[in-house]
Amino acid sequence: MLDAPIARIENLRVEFETKAGTVVGVEDVSFEIASGETVCVVGESGSGKSVSSLSLMRLIEFGGGTIAGGKLVFDRKEGGEIDLAEAEQSLMRTIRGNEIGMIFQEPMTALNPVFTIGRQLTEGLKVHRGMSASEADARALELLREVRIPEPERRLKQYPHELSGGMRQRVVIAMALACKPRLLIADEPTTALDVTIQAEILALIDRLKRETGTAVMFITHDMAVVAQMADRVVVMFRGNKVEEGTVEEIFENPKHPYTQALLAAVPRLGEMTGTDYPKPMKLVGSNAAEPEPIIGSDETLLEVKGLTTRFPVKGGFFRQTVANVHAVEDLSFSIPKGRTLSLVGESGCGKSTAGRSILRLVEPMKGSVKLDGLDILGQSDRDLRKARADMQMIFQDPFASLNPQMKLADQVSEPMENFGMYSASERMDRVAALFDRVELPRSFMQRYPHELSGGQRQRIAIARALALNPKLIVADEAVSALDVSVQAQVVNLMMELQSELNLSYLFISHDMAVVERVSHDVGVMYLGRIVEIGPRRAVFENPQHPYTQALMKAVPIADPRKRKQEKDLNFKPIPSPIHPVGYEPVKNEYKEVGPGHRVLISDSGY
């Protein structure tokens, strides 16, 4: 039997005042969280998950919301139960960070860009725990080790922008755990993380929960994470709780149609076992016929040989180059027309740099890139601009890649204008057709990016990438931040466009279940090198390299009876990719283990 609840939300109602009148963020939600228990709150964007957690922290007022009804009862251990909805902000400042810790979804906005990591970690310890500077520094170092950050001593002196997304998220988690809170609220804490780091973070939160009896409120839209973490699940839809039950009940016997649809949209690793070609998912409620597999052609579109990209590390009095970051090292692969090659690996393995180097958004040091026979690296700036019409990119964060001051129709027509394609009226007709193609209403053409949800913004990014009829699209984590059902729709859309327009994709991702769904071929990257590459079926069903095997083992499965144990996750810390000037790494040598399936034999350090 679990202890008395640490937190109880009773009939919570939250309202926001807008120009159009009152908007209800959460209508009527009640649930409780006991000591040592993980309650997962699931639902799509806009269902009220984050609003509930921000209300519990009483941060909702700073976001323009008001708690219009209900109670937020919190057991303070010393001092008994209080209703946080009635508490003064001065008391809330004592409770926040000390008794209730919060891991925010977006680590870059949760960290202060002008302070070092060390200063941000020690601040709460000094304020809430009264530690001296040296004690706080020692605890900060210990926390960074707990969240498995490599070279923690160096990280304490660095600033947030110097860390990768996964590292920043681990720092935010360390900050939330610093004061050993009674209640930990985790708002999508692993959305932007790699599979291996996600597995470690989930195991870490689970271990801390068991050791310290912390109650965990875990907000997510990733059903595989829910299966891994939850004791109980609360399903939210449009500001209301539609279903609640133990994790087994929700997964094995969902009662509400929304829960059933949510579970049906989850891509599960192993679903494509035994099939050679990718095919779109059949979504609940769609009347479309059974999707056809996408076969593609054998004619090569993109050929990359020996691609190497390094970034200089400056230092010393004269800002000379003292070392190099070996981001991409001797990369070779090809993509046929109408097919998809996925690059997978952890943050910092060089997959995004590889995509940008191919488009020459980052200048490679050496190697060759040929697109339909044209040597991309040998083009002058003017000729490169022309060649860029054939290769487009969909970025990870659609909000950052769209201009907040331009209407959506102008953003989609801008590439055509830049290249002098079509007349003004033809451009608008084409924009309207592209909106239809990505399944957005034409009324959205006059809207701005902030008026759309994340999934809708990503559709605009896809429409803009298609505007010039490219042959190759580099999709850099294009669906990683989307809800399950939206992700399924966007992935299906990308695959339908591929079969219609014979597009080739370089699909960069860390989500193995999505990669299995969309890929013809898969390359696994580690420290700037491809350690294993081959047909998707061969790599997924018969992984040969130890790193690929570790990666597959880390993927959470959307089944609560197949939970990963911490002892299963024995990842080696990733060595530093920074090497002194003059260091020449060994050339990549591969062994063929099957038709088109190659494994790196020269030392990759794993």
Written description of the protein model:
The protein is α/β, with parallel strands linked by helices and 606 residues long. The chain is built from 21 helices and 23 strands. The strands form 4 sheets. It has an 8-stranded mixed sheet, with helices on both faces. It has a 6-stranded mixed sheet with strand order 6-7-8-3-9-10, sandwiched between helices. It has a 5-stranded antiparallel sheet with strand order 15-14-11-12-21. Helix 4 (117-129) packs across helix 5 (133-146), helix 5 crosses helix 7 (165-177) and helix 15 packs across helix 16 (424-437). The longest helix is centred in the middle third of the chain and has 18 residues, at 195-212. The model has no long low-confidence stretch (mean pLDDT 87).
Short précis:
It is built from 21 helices and 23 strands. It is of the alpha/beta class and 606 residues long.
Considering the chains and any ligands shown, give keywords for the structure.
Rossmann fold, eight-stranded mixed sheet, 606 residues, single chain, alpha/beta, 21 helices
Biggest sheet record:
8 strands, mixed
Ends apart, CA distance between termini: 44 Å
The helix fraction, in percent, is 25-40%
SSE-based structural type:
alpha/beta
In what range is the share of β-strand residues? Answer: 25-35%
CATH class of the domain at 274-372 and 510-606: Alpha Beta
Q: What would the CATH topology of the domain at 274-372 and 510-606 be?
A: Rossmann fold
* Beta strand count: 23
Q: State the CATH architecture of the domain at 274-372 and 510-606.
A: 3-Layer(aba) Sandwich
- Classified in CATH, the superfamily of the domain at 274-372 and 510-606 is P-loop containing nucleotide triphosphate hydrolases
Q: Taking Cα atoms only, what radius of gyration do you get, to the nearest Å?
A: 25 Å
Low-confidence stretches: none
Number of helices: 21
Reading side by side through the largest sheet, how are the strands ordered? 16-17-18-13-19-20-23-22
The 3D shape can be described as: globular
- Quote the average pLDDT: 87
